[in-house]
Amino acid sequence: MRPAFGQPQPSDDRPPSDLSPGDSDNLSHARGPNVHDLSECLFFSPTDGRIWLDGQRMILMHNTSLGSLRHELIERLGLERARGLLTRAGYSSGVRDAQLVRERWPDADPEAIFYAGTQLHSLEGVVQVETVHFEFDPRKGTYDGEFLWHHSSEDDEHIAAYGIGTEPACWMQLGYAMGYVTTLLGRLTVFREVECRSMGHATCRVLGKTVELWGDVEEDLRYLNAEDFVSHGPAPYPVQAGLPEPDGELPPLGERRLVGVSSAFIASCHMLRRVATTRATVLFTGESGVGKELFARMLHEIGSRSDQAFVAINCAAIPDTLIESELFGVERGAFTGATTSRPGRFERAHGGTLFLDEIGTLSPSSQGKLLRVLQEGVVERVGGTREIQVDVRVVAATNVELREAVRRGEFREDLFFRLNVFPIPLPPLRERRDDIPLLLSHFLRHYNQLHERSITGFTLKAMRALLNYHFPGNVRELQNLVERGVIAAEDNTPIDLPHLFRDEETTRNLLFTIGSDGELAEESDESALEQFRRFAPATEEGPSLDKLEARLVREAVDKADGNLSAAARLLGLTRSRLAYRMKKLKEAGVE
Question: I need a labelling partner for 520 at 20 to 30 A (CA). Which of 94, 219, 281, 379 fits?
Fold first, then answer.
């Protein structure tokens, strides 16, 4: 894979080290970004009020203001909830910085990529990181490091507000380290602060290890959990979004997982908690594969009806001629083949929860009968003559926009309002990319156990692709890709890109690289020189490097509407460097 235009070039002809183990002792020889390279990713655009760290917008803010916010969070939410909130915010920042480094320096050695996180954290003014030692082995899926943190911004404000205490206080920084390394390695990595200035130590000492090396990490991981029903620990069952358990019953709480730390995911979890203990009808909306049934099951599990039945039906999977008998039951002799009377899903869910998936596919006749049940609380079996009282909490889900279906006359408006009492939108995976490393680690643990494999993790190339893939199938697709990778890869090795993607995801057998727009793009077999000759403007003497540079500059300035700072960001340059190049091209008469 070749560096993009304007990125640092490899210093020698060594093969890519995507699968190689490494440690901090090799940093002096490692190819990759140094502090100067990282500093050049920071762009100030004071005229339009924005600061950029490569493609991520940043802000400068008084540390005392952040300290005031931290203090108010602790006083209002309590120390535990405030710590969790700040840990998750730090985790999100670490994920984004890991993506930045991987995408901008795709050919850097792993040592340099891991080390860049410590440099970025210092560059961002958060803490000065001194590396004592770190080592990692993607083939084994392990990471082990020790660091000293000097001048922690969090400690400054925590000590000012609360003085010296007995617990560490660098919560956001621990979250950042977890997010950064977990994203690079594809295995959940936990950092612990064993010494802290807020505890009276001269400096902060931090240890980081993959979960398997730590052993029990429940105490550490609970700060990633926005709610107590969210968990990132090992689970003996897969998260089968949209599929019932084999025996039709729910395993105990904790054996199924809602996994995530992204703001969109957390918002859905908070809404779930708020409505769970009520009797209100809930409507889950979202694309196919986002986990609507998993959320519905969790709603039942944490609600007041958890000791009663949870009954699910996929309305799209039942023919129109049978849906009413499935929902409301059937009496013997009601139609040919009805040799016995049997209860419908409403009766079976009496006292508990009925989950109606793909509810937008119901026929108009079934919609009317469902509305009657919701209004009156009674069902009448197909072919029956008596009304049966039912006490059911109805939870519905749809991957279509029901309001639009109402406007088109395809869905009853009165039924829509009955169902839409408490809507909970579930975000697609592309809107919760911070969760991808956690989901990967979670599914990898499960499928290693299920298929009795020992796959160690994901290569940097595979992680880069997965974090930029658009996932039309959402979490279900990610889950399937991980299972495929576990099956395809060799034991005691990481999952690489060819193990994940097949022809159905790509029109040909492709590898992927990250394009300038941040999307997956085809990696060509052409050499850099061949691509230059094909794309560079030609002169009588042949392709012109100066004309290609002028063309790139012109297109960037045009795209940025004449804003040189923005154009410089598009080209990976500082504003002054872009201005210098433009001046030299003008002096040379190149247009």
Answer: 94
- The listed CATH number (3.20.20.10, 3.30.1380.20, 3.40.50.300, 3.40.50.2300) that belongs to domain 22-224: 3.30.1380.20
Segments in 233-262 forming alpha helices (H): none
**Fold of the CATH domain 528-587:** Arc Repressor Mutant, subunit A (1.10.10)
Angle at the Cα of 252 from the Cα atoms of 221 and 452, rounded to 5 degrees: 70
What is the distance between the alpha carbons of residues 457 and 475, in angstroms, rounded to a whole number? 18
Task: Please say whether the structural domain 430-522 has been given the CATH code 1.10.3720.10.
Answer: no
The whole-angstrom distance between residue 248's C-alpha and the CA centroid of its chain comes to 29
Rounded CA separation 227/270 (Å): 7
Element (H, E) at 484: helix 474-488
Measured distance CA(421)–CA(588) in Å, rounded: 68
Distance CA 435, CA 341 (A): 47
What angle (nearest 5°) sits at the alpha carbon of residue 207, between those of residues 206 and 209?
150
Q: Which tokens go with 64?
A: 């005392």
Q: For 139-190, give the secondary structure using H, E and C.
A: CCCEEEEEEEEECCHHHHHHHHHHCCCCCCCCHHHHHHHHHHHHHHHCCCEE
Contact between 16 and 1 (Cβ < 8 Å) = yes
What is the distance between the alpha carbons of residues 221 and 231, in angstroms, rounded to a whole number? Answer: 8
pLDDT digits 0-9 by tens, 224-242: 888 888 876 554 333 333 3
Contact partners, residue 144, CB within 8 Å, separation at least 6? 134, 135, 136, 208, 209, 210, 213
Q: What is the DSSP letter of 379?
A: E
Number of helices and strands in the chain (H, E): 23, 19
Q: Check: pTM over 0.70? Answer yes or no.
A: yes
Q: Cα separation of 255 and 234, whole Å? A: 9
Are 360 and 400 a contacting pair, CB within 8 Å? Answer: yes
Whether 22-224 and 528-587 share one fold: the answer is: no
What pLDDT was estimated at residue 440?
93
**Cα Rg for the chain, rounded, in angstroms?**
28
Domain residue ranges in the chain? 22-224, 263-426, 430-522, 528-587
Class of domain 263-426: alpha beta
Q: Where is mean pLDDT largest: 190-194, 252-256, 373-377?
A: 190-194
Angstrom distance (rounded) from CA 496 to CA 501:
10
Digit-coded pLDDT (tens) for 508-564: 333 444 343 434 444 444 455 555 555 556 555 556 777 778 888 888 888 888 888
